[in-house]
Amino acid sequence: LKMSWFWFYLPLHLLMVACLCHSIKAPTTSSQQSFKTDLLNFYNSLILADGKETTIHLLKDIPKRYYFVLEEGRALAPFTITVTPCDVPIEWSMLVQKASASFLGKAARGDHEIQEVSKSQKAPSMVSTIFNYKGNSVETYMGMSSHSALYMLEFLSTERDTHITVYLTTNATSGHLYPELPMDPRIDVIGIGHTTVTLTWKHSPSVLQHRENIQYCLLVNEKHNYKSLCAAETAIRSSGMKLPPTLALSLSPYLLEPQQVMILSNSELSIINKASSGEVRQICMGIKNTYTVPNLSPSTQYYFDVFVVNLLTNASAAYTGTFARTLEEPEPKVMELKDGKVIQVVLDGKKHKFYSLQYQARHKKIQFTFQLCRGQVRVHITKNGKTVALENISGLRYFSLKGKLLDTYLVQLRSTEESNSSVKVQVSPHFHKPLFPLLPESLKIKSFSKLRTCNSVTIAWLGTQEESKYCVYKKQIEEDQVWVELRNMDRCSGPESRHKSEKVLCKYFYDINLQRAVTTETIKGLDVGTLYLFDVYLFGPSGISIRYHSKVVKTRKKC
After folding, report:
1. First and final CA of the chain: distance in angstroms?
2. Where are the domains of the chain?
3. Beta bridge mates, 263
4. What single string gives the DSSP state of each residue in 378-443?
5. Of 12, 17, 5, 154, whose CA–CA distance to 69 is shortest?
6. What distance in Å separates the CA atoms of residue 444 and residue 423, rounded to the nearest whole number?
7. Which of 33, 135, 311, 424 has CA 20 to 30 A from 509's CA?
8. What is the DSSP-derived secondary structure letter of residue 12?
9. What is the pLDDT of residue 527?
10. Residue 237 and residue 241: Cα distance in Å, rounded?
11. DSSP letter for each residue of 470-510
12. Signal sequence span per UniProt (predicted)?
């Protein structure tokens, strides 16, 4: 079988050698090196496959040549060449060498007289350039020939190493590899919002003919438009991200890279490639030709490209890209803070929006109090436009500030996590009786391993010099639920959010000597080898509670 393929290709190879030899004058002594170079270039060239898309890698400033031959004896043989640059602009040209049928026939048979052409004899053929192009757009050449001919394609990149794809077909009845574009291939922007842009485009004729094998894919980014999916793939890879085998995004499963997020909803497949330079979104929406792009950033310019994709071949055609700028985000509403009043703010982690609070001082000394309930929160306080505090808070945090009467303070809060965060805020004159209780040096709960039994545990916690009320609560918990329970805990919620059965006891205590301001409690009636979550709540004069850090303790299995 291998030998049969060899004999099939051998005449074509000899034909091209003969044509090339007749197109070059016999070498003289001074031109032998040039002749050898031409032959070397030929043997380093490749035969372009018919009816198949070929990927070609180009080195900077080094031309690369491919050849193909039209079949002999066909009247008005048609052919089509489509070249797609995948990165920088390239130069490419097509040359044709026409020869008589008898000459090509001799070349195909490998006649010795062809190889022994006299030095003075002229080649019975003529080489001419029929097309040339320079740029990074997808370009198609359609030709028709009534002669037997050898065609040469020459490609050159002068900017840097790159790659291109080339598609050759000589069969007019084989159908189109690339989907067709409509007469008007523009993308129209029909709606712009703060975080959305709505696009529409005219249907590809291929959708009407091959509905089940065609889909539209949209590419969204903040840099520029892409003239082909090939160019988009290259740009995304160069930013440090890996892609699936094609941006056509057929619904067959594949593994995503860690920096990729896939979203599948309502028959739409979205992939978000995250990189330090921004993100590139790819959305495939079937054959819908109107789409609203969601979750954009306000006051940002985006570039939109639509590609019609043949799912059977992964070949695609690009509509003329467009761009649009989302509307500016309206100024956030500013809530007024009042002396002594506590408000709780929930912050959206996904939108990364600031929540603004304003306070006009009625005293020279004031105190801001922040109690973190969930997540992580960044606090930024300005006085008359100048920053006086900026930090991420945890637990309970006080800011005591000095100024003048009627100074204007602006507090901006933002979640530093993807999930929602919440925080309680209070502002009051510095001399005002504090709303929150006086806190001990540490809010940790300690357990004593040696005092653990099969049905009891002993815990301890610090108190203060101020007589206060402390309540202990317990909750049975599974080992695989510990992290989730601690993660989702609302640290601002008080005992009122707990079930009555979880309450263990309440007690009052204090000590003037802080070294002795510690109390212990033994909780009995527990199950053997069981994990428990213990909480202690400290109540201040105003009734507002502070929750100690939860403690997880397991009773002994054997005693």
Report:
1. 81
2. 41-99+126-169, 177-242+278-330, 334-428, 445-554
3. 270
4. EEEEEETTEEEEEEEE-SEEEEEEE--TT-EEEEEEEE-SSS-EEEEEEEEETTSPPSSPPP-S--
5. 12
6. 20
7. 424
8. H
9. 95
10. 5
11. EEEEEEE--GGGHHHHHHS--TT--GGGS-GGGEEEEEEE-
12. 1-23
SS (H, E, C) 173-232: CCCCCCCCCCCCCEEEEEEECCCCEEEEECCCHHHHHCHHHEEEEEEEECCCCCCCHHHH
What token pair was written down for 177? 């590899």
Tell me the one-letter amino acid at 188. Answer: D
Residue type, 199: L
Residue 11: both structure tokens together: 């005449």
Tell me which residue of 61, 47, 86 sits closest to 155, measured CA to CA. 61
Contacts of 40 (CB under 8 A, 6+ apart): none
More confident residue, 132 or 171: 132
For the domain 177-242+278-330, what is the CATH code?
Answer: 2.60.40.10
Task: Give tens-digit pLDDT for 368-413.
Answer: 999 999 888 999 999 999 999 999 998 888 899 999 999 999 999 9
What is 334-428's CATH number? 2.60.120.680
Are 279 and 273 in contact by the 8 Å Cβ rule? The answer is: yes
Which one is the CATH code of 445-554: 2.60.40.10, 3.30.1180.10, 2.30.30.140, 2.40.30.60?
2.60.40.10
What would the CATH number be for the domain defined by 41-99+126-169?
2.60.120.680
Q: Would you give the DSSP letter of residue 496?
A: G
Element (H, E) at 17: helix 2-23
The strand pairing partners of 265, in sequence order, are: 268
